[in-house]
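input
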Amino acid sequence: MSLLLFLEQTLNGLQLGVTLFLMAAGLTLVFGIMNMVNLAHGSLYMIGAFFAASFTQWTGSFFLALPLAILSTFVVGVLVEAIALRTLYSRDHLDQVLATFGLILFFNELTKIVWGPISIFMDVPPLLAGRVELIAGAPYPVYRLAVLGVGLAVALGLWWLIARTRLGMLIRAGASNREMVGALGVDISRLYMLVFGLGAALAALAGAMAGPIYVVEIGMGDAMLIKTFVVIVIGGIGSIRGAFVAAVIVGLVDTFGRIVPAQLGLPTAIAEMAIYILMAFVLFFKPTGLFAARA
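output
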């Protein structure tokens, strides 16, 4: 493997990693605080991408469409939490899995009704359509660098929110002892609604940013959801720091897992197995993940 290919794939892995982090951060917050297994999180990623594609067509600007898509998906998330999920908090995880799997089917069919069965191809915004040579002879897409920058900025913003604000204090307290927080006068229902809406907004941001790179289609969040669960298990359930570190590791392993076997003449099936082998290895030595959330 040449040095230029190594650097390019490293950037690709980091870009995938921050996208996974946007998904994992919301999902690990929901599970860590609300004790809710939400299989429909990938559907929010898909809805965010479809909203972004539609708003881009209507406004003619991706930069206007992005906040509109995030806000719209936040509203969808709040409605889903209030209508479908609020009654499931006291139920066991099997009931939550079955209910949220039903939401996956519901959102797939609803998306097909609203947007049709045909995939949507989004163009890269003209402002970010070029390439930049970070190293001579190795041009790299500006848009992918922008995705990487946005992911890092969101990671820093989440750290500030969780560690330095009153809302973050309530989120951390709710994750540790929700009964005590409720007894102290905090509206737990409103806190859960905000946390779920925040998770939906992060998933929408990931989907909207992924739209110009991949294709916007029904079920696009399913494969991303599986990798997101791998990230959460490796990083530690409920840990934002663990989600970020694990997302970067998984992004790099998944990217190089598709390149290295071909370079060495190994079976391509290894690429699909790489992140699961990594997860098994981590769980063998640290069953609670790399950065288990403190309770």
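quick obs: The two ends are 44 Å apart (CA to CA).
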